[in-house]
Design goal:
Blueprint lengths: L3 H15 L1 H15 L2 H30 L4 H12 L5 H8 L7 H29 L10 H27 L8 H26 L10 H26 L2 H4 L2 H29 L14 H12 L11 E4 L2 H5 L6 E4 L1 H17 L1
Antiparallel strand pairs: 1-2
Length: about 350
């Protein structure tokens, strides 16, 4: 290998193969790229941006009814809802109003806004299905998706209202190191519970809940980091308001949403890599190692859409060796259903 760049890549590959603290994040990044999760994150950002204002109108309308006659509670709930978005949250609060309707008109208005916001769940469940390599036949249908969308918004709303109520009750007030420590861990725990619920709702039932916990924990930690780092990044965008005007706030909001979904999806990918032991991966390819082959085989089986459809995946590690008549290490993955069908056929043949 005479190319200096190739030698450098090979040295890095050899190092990470022997050093787990480096191999694991590289495995996560590789799977993130293999799943094209960046595109799913962009799609979630788009739908979240479109659905945010309908959801805010729904949320503010519900908050207005819950906190009727209690301005302090209403203010605390609004801070819980919009205070999670650095810089931009205050601007949004000034520009979004509640539905001025009641009875049937309110129900119809809320239903229309809810339908317009379902893209957030649909894009999220597609991303989680891709990340966990759930076959098409195991993914939820239209009715289930609508029900889960409603549950997702209820869970998110309950978390926001619960956080706002805790603020209003003074749980996070006060000064001193002890209070700041309590506030951090209480917020971390609340974030973990909410994100676990969100992951459970957006992930098909074929994936057990316990497998989602690692990703939820990582996402909760990442969320706390975003409250610090994300505020600085968004502030840099809003500083350009004199140049870009209102578009600076649009850019800042999109930047914030992009960062949030990036953290969530990277955390979900890490949970899959850890659960299925999909590391270390080979940086310099070929050859493909076992983790590489299992990832690529699962990606192929993602496209299964019918029970009678079967997908076989196999790899030839060295075409040159095969042409020369040398032994070739073959890897074949036909999926669980295909193997079950094969076993049944063998049993029928033996009975004959």
């Amino acid at each position: 290998m005479s190319n200096p760049a190739e030698r450098a890549v090979q040295r890095l590959d050899d190092l990470q193969q022997r050093f787990p603290p480096l191999a694991l994040p590289i495995g996560v990044v590789r799977k993130f790229a293999d799943d094209r999760t960046s595109a799913w994150g962009a799609l979630m950002t788009f739908y979240a941006f479109l659905g945010m204002f309908p959801l805010l109108v729904i949320g503010l309308t519900i908050i207005g009814h819950l906190a009727a006659g209690d301005p302090e509670l209403e203010e605390a709930l609004l801070e819980g809802a919009l205070g999670q978005i650095p810089i931009v949250g205050g601007m949004i609060e000034d520009d979004v109003s509640t539905l001025q309707a009641g009875g049937l008109g309110l129900v119809v208005g809320l239903a229309g806004l809810f339908w317009g916001a379902t893209g957030i769940y649909n894009s999220g469940q597609l991303a989680m299905s891709q990340i966990w390599n759930v076959e098409g036949i195991d993914r939820p249908g239209l009715v289930i998706r609508l029900v889960r969308s409603l549950i997702l918004f209820i869970v998110f709303g309950a978390g926001v209202i619960g956080g706002g109520w805790l603020v209003q009750q003074g749980f996070f007030s006060g000064a001193g190191a002890l209070t700041r420590t309590w506030t951090f861990f209480a917020s971390l725990l609340l974030g973990f519970v909410i994100i676990t619920a969100i992951f459970r709702i957006m992930t098909p039932q074929a994936i057990e809940t316990r497998k989602l916990l690692i990703g939820a924990a990582l996402a909760a930690i990442g969320w706390e980091g975003l409250q610090i780092v994300g505020g600085f990044v968004v502030a840099q965008e809003t500083d350009q308001v004199d140049i870009y005007g209102v578009f600076a706030y649009v850019i800042a909001l999109l930047m914030w949403l992009w960062l949030v979904f990036r953290v969530l999806l990277f955390s979900a990918e890490a949970a899959v890599v850890i659960d299925r032991d999909l590391w270390p991966r080979n940086i310099a390819q070929p050859p493909l190692n076992d983790a590489d082959k299992r990832v690529l085989a699962a990606l192929a089986r993602n496209e299964r859409r019918r029970p009678e459809q079967h997908i076989d995946v196999w790899f030839d590690d060295s075409e040159e060796d095969e042409e020369e008549g040398l032994p070739v290490d073959r890897y074949e993955d036909r999926g669980e259903d295909a193997h079950e069908d094969s076993n049944q056929d063998e049993e029928v043949e033996s009975d004959r």
